[in-house]
Amino acid sequence: MFTKTIKTIGLILVSSVMFGCGEKATTEYKLGVIAPLTGEGASYGDAMKKGIDLAVEEINKTGGINGKNLIPVYRDSKLESKEALNAFRYLVDVEKVPAIFGEAASSLSATLAPYANKSKVVLLSSISTADTLKDAGDYFFRNVPPNKNQAKTAAYFVKDYLKKTQVAVLYENNDYGVNMDSVFSDFFGKVGGKIVSHNSYESAQKDFKSVLLKVKESKPEIVYIPGTYQGNALILRQAKEMRIKAAFISGDGAYSPELLKTAGEAAEGFYCTLMSMPQSDKSPQVKGFFEAYSAKYKEEPNVYATYSYDAVHMVAQAIKDGGFTGEGIKNSLYRVDYAGITGQTKFDADGEVDKPYSMYTVKGGKFEVLPWMPNF
Hints:
The chain has eleven helices and 14 strands. By secondary structure, the chain is α/β, with parallel strands linked by helices. The chain folds into two domains: about 200 residues, Response regulator (Rossmann fold), CATH 3.40.50.2300; about 140 residues, Response regulator (Rossmann fold, 3-Layer(aba) Sandwich), CATH 3.40.50.2300.
């Protein structure tokens, strides 16, 4: 999914994290979770936790894994690199977990991946989408497709579905925004589009009037604003106040109920790319998941909860097949061909999946999927 710019820190992990977890006699299997449960990005962590908890509950109700209950051990990253590293150290040093679900932010996944590789602990993200994670190492996996897939989807959507050619780009100045802008701008040019203005904003920025004035003066038909929901919501609200008539499009980082709350009516007609997921009536398996999730949480599952749910079931299968060690889980994941709620998942040699993105729009104060898929 999205990326938070990493703060420079002076933290050095002690050498005790640099070892793997051998399989030991135990009555339960503990797995780690590193997610933003509080602070900036908490809505992503909340979705991860709900999907993970539901999957764990289902697995344990049916006898667990090899007769042992699965126990998720949560640590709050607060979307900060220091907290994420401390969480990793605790889960590896103290809890001795062989696998960790996380992180949400691509930059934090990139920070943790070298330690996961050195420690021989699997790190599996159901949200991080930065293209650079392709080279994160043998122990890093993600069951979500990379940014290049969604940025190309957005570009093709503008040209093919909306039939527009004049786009202003206003991207968040972090790894996620820069990555998305680069792919979108390049691909949009190749399909015959034109970037009429090109600007960035900082992650902590609150006032966008000056940069939005530049956008307005370029007279775009579409404004592409790849970034996280906090900035996107303020951009939408202030653009409406400035009477900018162009349609706005972002990436999966914008997908959050918090965007709808902050932007209010200004979010109507907003578009974003999002990992594809089936609707509740597609199959008995999918329908059962939607019903179980809604019964437990009194809400429908979002895409982050759904991909996190599938991630747990994939790791559970990997433990059955390869044993409860980091190396065993890693080797099994490379062989997995899992038919889950999010479709068929098979990792390539880089721990990547090739899945499509869908287009969503805000209608009546809710995100709705559009009946359109890219053809490229």
